[in-house]
Design goal:
This protein is α/β, with parallel strands linked by helices and about 450 residues long. The protein has three domains: about 55 residues, 3-methyladenine DNA Glycosylase II, Chain A, domain 3 (Orthogonal Bundle); about 250 residues, Dihydropteroate synthase-like (TIM Barrel, Alpha-Beta Barrel), CATH 3.20.20.20; about 120 residues, 3-Layer(aba) Sandwich (Rossmann fold). It contains 16 helices and 17 strands. The strands form five sheets. It has an eight-stranded parallel sheet with strand order 10-9-8-7-6-3-12-11. It is globular and about 80 Å long.
């Protein structure tokens, strides 16, 4: 059961040293209770108090770190059943499978294509993270070779899938520098696989035939001193797999069941006859509650919608999505192209950007930081005033890219035109349309 701020405060050293970043130990305790601080930020907490606080402050679903490098992920760590209650923290990781008997040339081609599947969205680089190497013939050398190639020649991290202990050991030895996931420990091999995971400090998937059967296996691993666990209920029929995901999440969050308090892995690749159906099933598990989703392949038309869904679901609903302040060229503008300005609310950006692209008029779009508010709301809140917009235009560098001095402001912010003119002497301030749908006609009229 989570401790209150006062209960946590009683376990702190009460030095008010400020080294944790807040002025008092009480403030730090309140931040710990609300999940806004980490216990490690306090340099003077005693070992006894640290043990008590670590256990009490641990999230009901423990976080598990997967892999190394730029595509390292943390999964789990969730605290709520529904996103609107607070937020979801650690986004789903996506994996595609390769067989251990794949030809070298085919593997190289796949990895090259998969590495290229990266998409820029609201200032973020969206991409999949994992490759699952699947043992198909029990050949330890072949399995290790493929795992090593994936780990050394690509950015992807690795899931090692084999039921044979010698094959798994070979795979771990080949790519343990990338912290691969061992998949999967079962009732038959839990001792050997558990020891392998613990000795190498690797995350391990635990697989059983039902949710109930999982609990005994996870308990055994915890008793061995290993908690980097990912759960596989064993279900490969969509309805049952979905029910298992919900049951495990509810049990961990509502009933405080620590034996199921771990992230989960699901296998749409084993639930559907083709990638299109896999993608639909994967989309369901991104929302409910797959921490790792394994597909048979990565293609642009499949993975991009899933990455976008993931972005939307794992964006904090209490904070608006934003884009980075700056200059955005649309359609290869030149020194004579129109210059428009708007706020950094992501929805505003994408709508305005889409309409400018649709107009076929190359333009410069200036995005000003307005704390993620829309134009009208930002203006009403004083976040998109004439003085601020004028100062932003001066410092953003747009004057170095154009010959003219005309700035188009949103129609809903017409009231700031005079203040912008005062801040930008010599500039012509033009009030643009109120509705984005009218931008194409407006821009075409200026050409």
């Amino acid at each position: 059961m989570a401790l209150t701020g006062i209960q946590i405060f009683k376990l702190l050293p009460k030095t008010n040293c400020k080294e944790c970043g807040v002025p008092t130990c009480l403030a730090f305790a309140m931040n710990l209770a609300s999940g806004k601080a980490e216990l490690d930020a306090c340099p003077y907490v005693s070992d006894e108090a640290r043990e008590k606080l670590a256990a009490a402050s641990a999230p009901p679903i423990l976080p598990v770190e997967i892999g190394k490098g730029v595509r390292k992920r943390v999964v789990g760590g969730e605290t709520v059943l529904y996103r609107h209650e607070k937020t979801f923290f650690n986004a789903t990781a996506f994996a595609a499978t390769v067989a251990s008997d794949i030809a070298d040339a085919d593997l190289e081609k796949k990895l090259k294509g998969w590495n290229a599947l990266q998409y820029e969205r609201v200032g973020l680089n969206l991409r999949p993270e994992l490759v699952a190497v699947k043992d198909v013939n029990g050949n330890a050398d072949a399995f290790a070779k493929v795992a090593k190639t994936v780990a050394e020649t690509s950015e992807f991290n690795v899931i090692l899938m084999s039921e044979k202990e010698d094959v798994m050991k070979a795979g771990v030895e080949a790519c343990k520098f990338k912290r691969p996931v061992i998949c999967a420990a079962t009732a038959d091999n839990i001792d050997a696989y558990g020891a392998l995971a613990k000795d190498n400090d690797l995350p391990i998937v635990v697989k059983a035939e039902s949710v109930d059967a999982l609990q005994a296996l996870t308990g055994k691993l915890v008793d061995m001193g290993h908690k980097k666990i990912i759960l596989d209920s064993g279900a490969r029929e969509v309805k049952q797999a979905m029910e298992d995901q919900v049951a495990m999440r509810r049990s961990a969050l509502k009933d405080g069941n620590r034996s199921l308090g771990f992230p989960t892995i699901v296998f749409p690749c084993e639930m559907a006859p083709n990638l299109d159906m896999e993608t639909l099933i994967a989309g369901m598990f991104v929302a409910k509650y797959g921490a790792v989703v394994v597909l048979s392949d990565f293609t642009g038309e499949s993975i991009f919608p899933l990455l976008l869904e993931r972005l939307n679901i794992y964006t904090d609903p209490q904070r608006p999505m934003t884009v980075t302040e700056g200059i955005y060229p649309i359609g290869n503008p030149d020194e004579n192209s129109p210059v428009m300005v708007t706020t950094n609310f992501a929805l505003t950006y994408f709508i305005v950007c889409g309409e400018i692209e649709g107009s076929k008029v190359p333009s410069w779009l200036l995005i000003k930081d307005a704390e993620g508010l829309s134009v009208l709301t930002a203006w009403a809140a004083g976040k998109f005033s004439g003085d601020d917009v004028g100062m932003f235009v001066k410092k953003c560098g747009i004057e170095d890219k154009i010959k003219h001095k005309e700035l188009i402001i949103p129609g809903y912010a017409a009231a700031i035109a005079g203040d912008v003119e005062e801040e930008l002497p010599g500039w012509t301030i033009t009030v643009g349309p109120r509705e984005a749908a009218h931008i194409p006609a407006f821009l075409k009229g200026k050409v």
